[in-house]
Amino acid sequence: MFATAPTWTTERLELLKTHFAAGLSCRQIAAEIGVSRNAVIGKLSRLGLSRERSGDEARPKKPRERRGRSVPRLQYEMLRQVYDEAAFTEAPVVSERRCSLLELSKERCRWPVNAEAEEFSFCGNTPLAGMPYCQGHTRLAYRSLARRAG
Ligand SMILES: [Zn+2]
User: Fold this and answer.
1) Which of 24, 27, 79, 97 has the most crowded Cβ, counting Cβ within 10 A?
2) How far is the CA of 81 from the centre of ligand 1 (A)?
3) 79 with 149: CB under 8 angstroms?
4) How far is the CA of 126 from the centre of ligand 1 (A)?
5) Which helix (H) or strand (E) holds 29?
6) CB of 145 within 8 A of CB of 79?
7) How far, in Å, from the CA of 30 to the mean position of ligand 1?
8) Up-side HSE of residue 131: CA atoms within 13 Å toward CB?
9) Nearest CA among 45, 61, 60, 49 for reference residue 23
10) Which residues are registered as beta bridge partners of 113?
């Protein structure tokens, strides 16, 4: 956890917290643990412990929520938006610019069509901004997503 700060072994960290809780000054803590006073001050501030409001209980900062989850969530929201807009459009998706795997690019919808045919091809329509699929296929993608989620 504190691998980047070799000064602070788990043991020293515990001592730091104990001494801090006991009300020792930074200088005293430093002497007790055997590190520099600056190191103690720096560590205390990194831990969110501060002398300034000694009346308050030291509140450890909550680690920030990992952002990894928000990306698919965002995509889901986008899909839902698209779906809501197109909720009453039941027309089949027309892929007029079918292309092969090699021809795929960011400008072409990568929804596979003709999956049963020998010549596997992709939709190739202009995709929605930020999406891998055109509007029609984004809608289809959302449906299967919603089906899986529900
Ligand atoms: Zn498409």
Assistant:
1) 79
2) 17
3) no
4) 7
5) helix 26-33
6) yes
7) 65
8) 27
9) 49
10) 121
| 77 and 140 housed in the same domain | yes
Print the domain residue range for 53. Answer: 1-63
Taking residues 94-111, report their average pLDDT: 90
Residue 24 tokens read as 């020792």
Domain tally, the chain: 2
Residue found under tokens 């039941």: 90
> By the 8 A CB rule, do 50 and 59 touch?
no
Strand partners of residue 121: 113
The model's pLDDT over 10-30, given as tens digits with 9 standing for 90+, comes to 899 999 999 999 998 999 999
Give the domain CATH number at 1: 1.10.10
How far apart (Å, rounded) are the C-alpha atoms in residues 146 and 80? 9
Helix, strand, coil % (nearest 5) of the chain?
A: 45, 5, 55
**Rg of the chain over all Cα atoms, to the nearest angstrom:** 29
Name the pTM for this structure.
0.39
Q: Find tokens 């001592």 and name the residue.
A: 15
- Same domain? For 39 and 83 the reply is no
CA of 2 to the centre of ligand 1 (A): 48
Last residue of a domain, one of 47, 63, 79: 63
